[in-house]
Amino acid sequence: MRIVLAYSGGLDTTYCVAWLTREKGAEVVTVTVDTGGMDPAESERIAARARAAGSVEHIRIDARQKVWDNFIATLVRGNVLRGAVYPVSVAAERTQQAVEVARVATEAGADAIAHGATGAGNDQVRFDIAWRVMVPSIPILAPVREHGVERVTSIAYLEEHGLEVPPGSGRYSVNRGLWGVTIGGGWTHDPWQGPPEDAWSEEMVTAPAPADLIIGWEAGLPVSLDGEAMAGPDLVEALEARLAPFRIGRGIHLGETVLGIKGRIGFEAGAAQVLVAAHRELEKLVLTRWQSFWKDHVAQFWGDRLHEGQAFDPVMRDIESMIESSQQRVVGDTRVGLADGRFLVNGVRSPHSLMDPSVASYGESHRLWTGDEARAFASIAGISSQLAAAAGELPPW
């Protein structure tokens, strides 16, 4: 039996390799899809760990550009933050990973396709939906979910067979990708408890002196950092490196899981937070009120569906077209001030700016209307409230 396994190199997927090869006698092909946050040394460690656990073939796929083009670009253009804080990091990566693993399974003529997700989390839904859409004839295996395997059991199994236990398996579950790092652990189960300091990837150090950086934009996407042109994934990684010493991007998200229960995670996503904030500020300068309103409205729906594993629904293509159409004039530069633990978008400029000081200054001069016209407008604007008051519908205050 030949099984293609989505392999992250972490505890659960390493257990899956070992269990499937030893208990099922399967030939396991491991596929690691790099969607960011993986340097060459880490990639080699993951490949060695897979082979040691029993993989007959290990495949690494660089999908950084694909996850940017297919998902992250829309998250930026849509200003998508789940629960107003979390940049939907994992959902974008998992969907692209599932797509790449399905392609390998098809090419390899796999008898089954497998993942290491648990029965309680979101990833199982994302993998299952993607594979049922793309490779409906290939059975899906999920050993950790199917047997209710706990982390202590996985660790014990690997140790019993003389296999390396991936670093950090005991206290935290960490996912590192292009759009941020997510951190799970015992502390997330108590909504009153904050994260221990050692949960974060960056140690406490003295932050650099406050500084500014400039992000250039074309069609709603970042294209340069301090004047240096970069492709999207490279820009995100360069920006993350700039932000890390400032400890910018740390946060906690509490919200609905795909299964309908409450979930909580810590995250580090400085580049995502800065890019979304800077993009939103540039949009304020160049889009009309209702362009922004409707674009953000449907983009939030798009982000929620992506989070829930529904990236294949045709409505997503419709929304993507609307968002792309809204971004043609989102061009210009944003200036971002950095300080210890915080940032501020303190400047925006664009050739398509709708803010024209020659037309009017708030509270001062104006050229597009007369004082009499302003007085008439103010009078008309209050008519509905006046009529309601006359009918006795006054507020309690």
Which keywords apply here?
alpha/beta, Rossmann fold, Argininosuccinate synthetase, chain A, domain 2, 3 domains, 5-stranded parallel β-sheet, 5-stranded antiparallel β-sheet, 14 strands, 42% helix
Q: Would you summarize the structure shown here?
A:
It is built from 13 helices and 14 strands.
Radius of gyration: 25 Å
CATH architecture of the largest domain: Alpha-Beta Complex
Question: Helix segment count?
Answer: 13
- State the CATH superfamily name of the largest domain: Argininosuccinate synthetase, chain A, domain 2
Number of β-strand runs: 14
Q: What is the average of the pLDDT values?
A: 93
H and E string: EHEHEHHEHEHHEEEEEHEEHHHEEHH
In CATH, the topology of the largest domain is named Argininosuccinate synthetase, chain A, domain 2
| Biggest sheet character | 5 strands, parallel
Q: What is the highest CATH level, the class of the largest domain?
A: Alpha Beta
**Percent in strands:** 15-25%
Low-confidence region ranges: none
Fraction of residues in helices? 40-55%
Sheet with the most strands: spatial strand order: 3-2-1-4-5
Distance between the termini: 73 Å
Which outline best applies? elongated
Structural class: alpha/beta
Q: How many domains in all?
A: 3
